[in-house]
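Standup notes, structure subgroup. Blocker cleared on the adenosine monophosphate input:
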Amino acid sequence: MRLVLLGPPGAGKGTQAQRLGLAHLSTGDMLRAAVRDGTQLGRQAKAYMDAGELVPDTLIVGVLVDALPEDQFVLDGFPRTVGQAVALKRAGCEIDRVVQIETPDDEVVRRIAGRAAEAAVARADDNEETVRARLAVYHEQTAPVADFYDSEGLLRRVAGTGSPDDVHARIRAALG
Ligand code: AMP
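Run returned:
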């Protein structure tokens, strides 16, 4: 199964991806590691991430494609633009299923404020102003990715409300 999890920041994509028992690739985690390690990618990506903007497709697509396992994986945070979805396909990677976790904007802001308060080391982009910027980017640039996969017949939508167990059960049901 080659799976993509879509959804706004704070929808629980990372939590849900980890529970599926597949290799889990998160471009956000890869980029944060690059920033921490001070690599060239990290130095190029940091200002975009701190502002809540997407890093340019040219920076992230090659890194993700190189890290892809042959089969059996879940992508979390990629593709974020229709350009990235097309690039994935051009690289020969056929996705089997896409699950969009739907979470209302006010719930996203509430959850990320809670996540920031609990974290030992706060994420630089988990403050309210940046969360609003990330939500705007999601609606403008990432929501069309759902339409792209819907037109290919791959998209399933699940509600992101309730507990992580509730959402997990919905994802399992959507995967059949
Ligand atoms: P995330 O942890 O997925 O919310 O990602 C954190 C930040 O990393 C995002 O706000 C973007 O700045 C950047 N990022 C992660 N994945 C991508 C991607 N596929 N394309 C562009 N930027 C990304």
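Discussed briefly. The pocket of adenosine monophosphate is lined by residues 9, 27-28, 31, 48-49, 52-55, 60, 77-78, 80, 84, 125, 134 (CB under 6 Å).
Next: hand off to the docking folks.
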